[in-house]
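Structure request: 4-hydroxy-tetrahydrodipicolinate synthase, Flagellimonas pacifica.
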Amino acid sequence: MQFEWEGVMPAVTTKFTNEDTLDLEMFSVNIKAQIDAGVSGIILGGTLGEASTLEEDEKKKLIESTVDLVAGKIPVVMNIAEQTTKRAIKAAENAEKYGASGLMMLPPMRYNSTDYETMAYFEAVAKSTSLPIMVYNNPVDYKIEVTLDMFEELLKNDNIQAVKESTRDITNITRIRNRFGNRLKILSGVDTLAMESILMGADGWVAGLVCAFPRETVAICELVKAGRIAEATAIYRWFMPLLELDINPQLVQNIKLAEVATGIGTENVRLPRLPLQGKERDRVISIIEEGVRTRPEIPVL
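Returned structure:
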């Protein structure tokens, strides 16, 4: 499938049953809610998807199930987060075989690779697959930055097409645009900077709280792109306390609690994660409950 890197692309959670198996029934409920809200793609196997805990057969089931659910309407993107180049190439091969139409890709995990090693890693995978690739640039959490000079080299590979921009430096969007024009598509990867990023020229938003609030997330993106800034700002201000649940070490637990509150998910996580406890659980639930209580009307788009 040919597609543009734009609009809202949810980094969806993986749903588990009480017996710690894939809950494909609840997963389908959530994916259908995303499609109905007008998202532009589905991203599987990210941090929110608890990818490091998934077995290969589970990844296969998730991709194949999602491809069936979207029925060709929107692309299915698989995240790659591996420790070795060999495993990253195999993950890309499997994603393509199972039906994914794009890849999101982190630098090597655990080892802090040099600039040269990082570029070699991305290029090896890019040359091994026909799928388009979005580089996930998150030096805050993963300690490796893909600089603009590095992108200059990486973009010689036609299928490296986009960046999930998570440097937390809003001015980086302007630098990317000034240097590469539209050759490198930009998707904001930080929920609490998403509206600002789109205003500064980002093409879209790889979102987290969209997992629980798809209509509101899509509305912000579409309203900004339509120049209806005041309407977008009103929703974004309502959304901010919820969006802050995404920039937290327990973002998976937080967002799954929000999915429960909106009826499109369960709280089940996979060990070693555990559901939130005590005062922190009470704090998160109070934010979610207030967000649900004051949920805004969505204007006609």
